[in-house]
Structure formats: structure tokens, C-alpha cells
Amino acid sequence: MTPKIAAYITLYKDQEAAMKCIQAIKYQSYPVDTIFIVDNSEQQLLANDHDELLKIHHCPDNIGIGQGLVLALAWAEDLGYDFLWTFDQDSIPTDSCLETLVSTHNRLLSDVYKIGIIAPTAIDPRTGMIIEGAMFIGDRFIGHKHHHYHDFYECDSPITSGSLISLAAAKTIAPPRADLFIDGIDWDYGLRLKMEGFHNLIVPGAIMHHNFGIPIQVKLKHKKIIFQQYSDLRNYYICRNHTYLETRYSQGWNRLKSYQLRLKYLIRTILLIWLYDSDNKNTKIWACILGTLHGLQGKLGKM
């Protein structure tokens, strides 16, 4: 039986990026039935009446990525879809991306090998860097090294954008955490699916282009690195949510190590902002400090 698939996009203040993402989804060699969009912009950017494929839910108070995914998954489950293909607005899947994901899923799925999420290889076209899925290793999340020559490989948590989520798997766990708002939602959701016995996969042959932050190449200790520049708000959520998730998933002595690693991350991030960021340095540094403090305290929600 041919799987019934809906796509989902979180939209925020960038109509041009959203239109490119929508067009890329429409041009897939394996078609989707509907594109469900949560528009978090103050003024609605897309109209419902121009395209029957689009189902737009306008949220001018900005419910974030987490609550948007909750709405989209509930909507897809109610309508009997088999999969929800999730996107950030700044992602463009290649024409055969979905077909490759579906065929890989169908080939691997069995009663003993349950798949939760199957995702493409995300590449930032500005740098050529692969945006890795995450693994939790006891005291922190790390990027999973990309395996170019494999048909697929497992990780704990693929990034949200491009993830093809099995609705059968989604029904077995609590929905994505709306209180994380943005950042780290994919870490938590993927890891919870894995803990329930599902496998989350990356498929090298399925390609998606995805703009990841604002990359700046800098030289640190005689080594060239890519420094991702973010807004003060984004720095807050990254520091808060990553601190919260890593310290809560860590157990025993690993939790103490996790506290130490988060402090090291904070110091390193402050140093990079001070040396290489171009504007609002003091505000961004304060956002990182406050976010880390709130993460340790467990103070979540939209801030």
C-alpha cells in the first residue's frame, strides 16, 4: 500500500524562503497530499485561497517550533496519514529526496526493526558542511559523523527539518515538547523515540539543502573553524534548552560532568561572540548567561 504523506513547514517572517521550500516539496518525484503550515508571523504571509495543497494555520502570537509540531502531528494523525515530513522554512529538498526516504523505509521496515524517523542528509549550501544528526553519549549530545558510503546509518536524533516521522511511532510517545519553544526539540523527540525501541536513520542518498545559522569562518588557535552567528534570542534558547536537556538526560556522575561541559560551552561561546560577532555583543553574552542559568533551573517556556 502506498503511504499517505503530509508535509509540514514552520513559517516565520520569511515569505521568500517559505515559497522556495513549498515549491521544492511540490516538485518531489513522490508526491505529498497536503502541506500543513504554521505561520508564526505577526501578519499572515501566505493566503489559504490560492493553493488547495496548502493548509495554513496562522499563529500571530508565535507558538514556536515545538507547539507547531504538536499541532501538525495531531492534525496528521486525525486525518489518517502514515507520515509527516517536517521542515523549517529555510530548507530545500532535492527532487528525489522523499522518494529515496520512502523506498529506504519500505526496504528496511520489519516487525523487529521499527523505524521512528528517517531523514535526509542536510547540507548547508553556503559552506558545504553537513549538518549532522545527534547522539547522546552519557553527559552530552554530539554530532554523529556522516557516513557517505552507507545506504543509511542510525543516530539518536536527526534534525527536525527534513525528518519523515512515522505516525505509528509518534502515537507511542508524548508529542514534541512545546515548552522548549525552539532549539533542542529534535534532540529530545528523537531520543525519546529511540528509548521506546524505534530506530532513527539518516539516508546519505537523500539530499536536502538547509541554511544553518549565519556561518562565519574564523581562526582560533591557528585553526580555521566555522562560527555560527545567532540573534540574542536564539543564543538564549540554545543555551537554555541544551543545558536543560543535557543535564536532565545525564545520570549519576555524568550529570556532574554535564554541568562542567555546559560551563565550558558558555565560556567558549562568550569568547567567540566577543571576538567575532559584529553587533549587540553585550546583549548576546547576557542572553547566553541567562539561558544557561534558566536551563539549570528548569525554567522553560516562551521567553
Alpha plus pi helix count: 8
- Beginning-to-end CA distance, first to last residue: 45 Å
* CATH class category name of the largest domain: Alpha Beta
Using the CA coordinates, give the radius of gyration. 19 Å
What global shape is seen? globular
Number of domains: 2
- The total count of strands amounts to 14
Q: Percent helix among the residues?
A: 25-40%
CATH topology of the largest domain: Spore Coat Polysaccharide Biosynthesis Protein SpsA, Chain A
So, CATH architecture of the largest domain? Alpha-Beta Complex
Order of helices and strands: EHEEHEEHEEEEEEHHEEEHHH
Write a short abstract of this structure.
This protein has 303 residues and is of the alpha/beta class. It is 37% helix and 25% strand. It contains eight helices and 14 strands.
Could you please describe the fold and organization of this structure?
The chain is of the alpha/beta class and 303 residues long. It has 8 helices and 14 strands. The strands form 3 sheets. Strands 1, 2, 3, 4, 5, 6, 7, 10, 11 and 12 form a 10-stranded mixed sheet that branches. A hairpin with a 6-residue loop joins β6 (115-123) and β7. α6 (232-249) runs antiparallel to α7 (253-276), α6 (232-249) packs parallel to α8 (281-297) and α7 runs antiparallel to α8 (281-297). The longest helix is centred in the last third of the chain and has 24 residues, at 253-276.
